[in-house]
Amino acid sequence: MTTFGDGYQLALSEGSMVLDSTGPAAAFALLREHVPVYRQSELAFAMQKAFFENGKSLSEVATYLPILKAFDLDEKLEEQLTLALENGHPAQLDFQKARAMGIQSYPTVIAQIGDKYYDFRGQAMTASDLEQQYQTLIRYGELK
Q: Residues near 132 by Cβ (< 8 Å), separated by ≥ 6?
């Protein structure tokens, strides 16, 4: 079972952590356009690791700079990322799709396989559950 990292525990105990899905959703929507489809889950994992293991804010550009580097993304995306985090605009289409699926609360995890979307929110309670659901989706192309 995956546990929360020391950085996350420290940020939580300081009481300054702000939980807001709009920033990370906007950042992911922007960055995934520059990452091959087969690496998009890796991008999502890198973002989750920054937050849950290292306690980094997913609403701050500085959190994404090592991710840009790790994915060989142009540092010029930093300016676009700043705007995305400020206005949340890149995530709006994703939020509309989520609402169409009946999702009304965040955070949530949605996977796309072909033209189908799968909502993990009710099926995974831990990171290990989420990983198991993800592997099932990869293996069978659907959730069992």
A: 124
Backbone angles phi, psi at 117, to 5 degrees: -115, 140
Residue 2: pLDDT over 70 = no
Residue 33, amino acid:
E
- The pLDDT of 51-63, averaged and rounded, is 91
Q: Is the pLDDT of residue 61 over 80?
A: yes
Which of 55, 75, 56, 57 lies closest to 65, judged by CA? Answer: 75
Taking each continuous run of H as one helix and of E as one strand, the counts in the chain are: 7, 2
Q: Please state the separation of Cα 108 from the chain's center in Å.
A: 9
Question: Per-domain residue ranges for the chain?
Answer: 6-89
- The two structure tokens encoding residue 86: 């400020």
